[in-house]
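Hi both,

Apologies for the delay on this - the queue was longer than expected. I finally got the pyridoxal-5'-phosphate-bound model through. Below you'll find the protein sequence and the ligand SMILES exactly as submitted, and right after that the structure tokens for the full complex including the ligand.
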Amino acid sequence: MTPIDLRSDTVSKPGPEMRRAMAEAEVGDDVYGDDPTVNRLEAMAAERLGKEAAVYVPSGSMANLIAVMTHTRPGDEIVLGSECHIFNYEVAGAARIANVLTHPLKNREDGSLDVAEVASSFRERGLHTPVTSLLCLENTHNRCGGATIPSADITELASIAHTHGATVHLDGARIFNAAVALHTDAAEIARDCDSVSFCLSKGLGCPVGSLLCGPTDFIEEARRNRKLLGGGMRQTGILAAAGIFALEHHIDRMAEDHANAARLADGLRQFEGFRPNRPRSNIVVIDLVRGTAGEWLGPLRAAGVLATPFGPRRLRMVTHINITGGDVAEALKRIDQAVAAVAI
Ligand SMILES: Cc1ncc(COP(=O)(O)O)c(C=O)c1O
């Protein structure tokens, strides 16, 4: 039995057409700026995100870390949501490598931040205080169940940060999911942010890579920081070709992933022990009425469904390009068997 892998959208595998584009990519040494395919991907990314320039990096975590390093100076403070990826899942890179103080504000369940709290988080400049120089936002919001943050909310928060002389970075690892779900485009969502990162290796279905986009001088400095972190790669066009293919072919289809996530959540709601969220994009977060995440993972795996633990009594299931409507129906059947088989 082939498992239905709902652990993350990062588990998707490139299809034959994407692989063909990769095999046929024209390449050069990207550290010298010679790789035409990387250059094309960076230009496309900047254009799609409405920014002047972009730099291709190996991962979303590196894109975020480079953004933090480039926007701040060591000893500065950054304001961010308590549930955001930078704060929870990037091995404290902002503290360890960018040397900044992280100031988390409570994310509400829908991924939003309290406007008044954001406003009061920027410190008065003084002899004793760190400089609050950056606000980080996330859209869609992973830990908040793929929540979509409307552009108007981002505009309001960005304007507060800018009033205080700070910049704004948007972790848009899944910004195209947000754009499709909100019926807008990614540039509109990122409009008031100084920089934005997005991942190719999540809903866009590429094997690797992220882009950091922003003003030309910011991206020039970001390129230096990429080199510092060991992220300067060489004939990277082979990878970048997958990104170009995805930007051309894999954005609109994300609506299917969102519909599948909604179907999955509707099905899960029928089981007494599971309380799924109402997914806004491709992430289903399930609160467990009985048992722990650890207790459920084994039986689900045995039944042929893979999920991720997302807290002691919470699971996450993510739909992606390799999950069809039929897979969702089959996953629900298998979950039914798991529920029947265990006494949790
Ligand atoms: C919102 C968000 N930002 C950043 C990342 C980091 O991406 P990567 O795994 O490529 O480092 C992730 C990964 O899941 C994510 O969900």
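Main takeaway for now: The pocket of pyridoxal-5'-phosphate is lined by residues 59-61, 64, 85, 138, 142, 171, 173, 199, 201, 210 (CB under 6 Å).

I'll put the files on the shared drive as well.

H.
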